[in-house]
């Protein structure tokens, strides 16, 4: 599957994300770089198609120009995808998603600390300032949140949280990005679950000891 064309990879990953509650019907978008071109899921991929996409749904166009803006189904967060690719040449894929366990952190405006060994390499996933989903400000804030973390991008991926919205993961390719997305979501669940855990039991001491 990893050797398939970018649109085919996007279709597979979109379905897996939805199945595994790494995004929802409210939205999100997935893109991949192929040379100088960008391939990206269309607007309403979640709400109207429930992430059951076909290759005909995948949009594509040059990264260097704004030609994609002329396509009616171009995602409103597409500006952010383009900005990331233009700023970071090592990035081969961008995933914006609404993961089930990450969203509480987005609502609280709280960064996600790496508590699992599997997420240590990503460092802290920070929260960027709020901006509307369709805005140029969102693109600028995401780029600024990734800047300075180029070593993470060259190793696998880096991510930022969007207040009241979701997460953006930039990775070496689609497989690096989806892997990082799920690790960060499970890491978030581990943090959230601590509040539900009972206090550590008092050590048992036999009578007369």
Total individual domains: 1
Reported CATH architecture: 3-Layer(aba) Sandwich
Q: Describe the biggest sheet?
A: 6 strands, antiparallel
Any idea of the CATH topology?
L-fuculose-1-phosphate Aldolase
> What is the H/E string?
HEEEHEHHHEEH
Rg computed from alpha carbons, rounded to a whole number of angstroms: 19 Å
- What is the residue-averaged pLDDT? 95
**Tally of separate helices:** 6
N-to-C CA distance: 62 Å
The strands making up the biggest β-sheet line up spatially as 3-2-1-4-6-5
How many strand units?
Answer: 6
Low-confidence stretches: none
Report the portion of residues in β strands.
5-15%
Q: What is the CATH C-level name?
A: Alpha Beta
Question: How is this structure best summarized?
Answer:
The protein has 209 residues and is of the alpha+beta class. It is 32% helix and 15% strand.
